[in-house]
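Run log, item B.
One chain of 209 residues. Sequence copied directly from the ordering sheet:
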Amino acid sequence: MIPFQIERIYIDEKAEKDGLTQKILQGLSHLPVERVRGKKELIKTFLSSPDPLTVGKRHLLITHDYGRRLKPCPGTSNHLCCGYYVINPMTNCPMDCSYCVLQEYLNNPFLTLYTNLDDLLQEIDLFLSNQEEHFLRLGTGELSDSLALESIFPISQILIPFFAERGKGILELKTKSSNVDSIIHLNHRERTVVSWSLNPSRVIEEEER
């Protein structure tokens, strides 16, 4: 059971035949599905609503991302960066924490899943093979919670074995979710780190809706 409410699925026609798309649809077969040709107009329509981020968290968009999904962490201005790299197989988060940077940063309100997975894995593989350094940190927790959507979009179940087979780099999963049942049995070969952030009860009750 997923601990959040999705009301409708939108599928970009480019992603309709992907294996991951079919797996998502099987798990959410009770939901209405609407096929769209591209996402720009759909996003534009939702952004005009009074509270687009709250509404967007109840709608799933399945699409492709043709840009770079592995990037150096932008870091903070005038600070020394730690050398972290971010992987973006999805954007937005079903949780609704008042202080989250995603509340202001994203211009796409939907829970968005990018199902052209082969492109992403090739990008990561090429990046790792071209690096001389062996301790590279890559993670999925910048534009979404790493595990919150795992029950419908099992990206970590794919990335953990993928990193286990590579000699360079470790995978970092950053989350507030306890949704770990699907990954704890995986042979990670000590190349995956899962981390949680935790607040005092008052902050949880007042700010982490």
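Observations after the first pass:
- The first helix runs from residue 19 to 27.
- The radius of gyration is 17 Å.
Flagged for discussion on Thursday.
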